[in-house]
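ingest -> validate -> predict -> emit
validate: passed (alphabet ok, no gaps, 312 aa)
predict: started
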Amino acid sequence: MSTTTATTEADPFVHPALFYRGSGQYLQGTVPFVLGGLEAGEPVAVAVPERNLRLIRDELGESASQVRLIDMNEAGRNPGRIIPAILTAFADLHPGRRVRIIGEPIWAGRSAAEYPACVQHEALINLAFVGRDVTILCPYDLDGLDPEVIRDAGMTHPAIMDASGLRISEEYAPEYAVQAYNRPLPAPGNAAELAFDETGLSGVRAFAVEHASRMGLSGTRLQDLRLIASELASNSLDHGGGSGTLRLWSEDGRAVVEVSDAGHIVDLLAGRRPAAARQQGSRGLLMTNLLSDLVRIRTGADGTTVRAYFTV
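emit:
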């Protein structure tokens, strides 16, 4: 199995999926990619689940010290956080240089609630990095992942790499993939609910703290949820028709906060661009992605719902 970082005249960004079976093929596809980058003088980052991170680190030996190693189980637990906090953050550290990144956001064990956000993340990488000197290799475990996941990888990656070599993906359609998983969110059960307008932001914060603390959140995480509730409600006031509905409930060991309004998010990369140092406002979705354990968004002409999960 060989890897490539070849670019095209149209776009220097390269984003292949690596289909592998077993640790042998995994290392054959990833380690030469890393070593090739080091030999070319390119900064390299590896952001994969902890088990695979150990495999790559051990195989690299002393060369591992030259690579930025990131546990995706922790850093990428919210797929919406990966582009701004991992991929873009690393690329931006090295302006004027091509960088290589291995990013593995989907692994066996991702929940049904997380998976749609994972597919949208993989699709949006292609929009976020167009025109940049970046190569992002995304491994997919053919034995551990459902066939649906492998099919979706063809939609979100322009090229596929496997034991037989490199080929163009005939199914590549990233914007379609984003819309295909822009699905209505399942209705919550037993949610506490508060309608709000421009007079009610203080009430939003108090309501969020009261109910999230009953669910077991405390300390910094409780304050994070309070902040997210306030930021999302502010977005509703500014961009969602001037009012909205806040809901909170407990689900599978997580406190969930949701804000719905009449707005429509048309910017596919909203919440995934790092904020400029002097940027004022419009950080609500970015902060939600950075602070939450999972974020799901459903948006359309009929309105927008943003749902953020916090592990208790």
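The radius of gyration is 20 Å.
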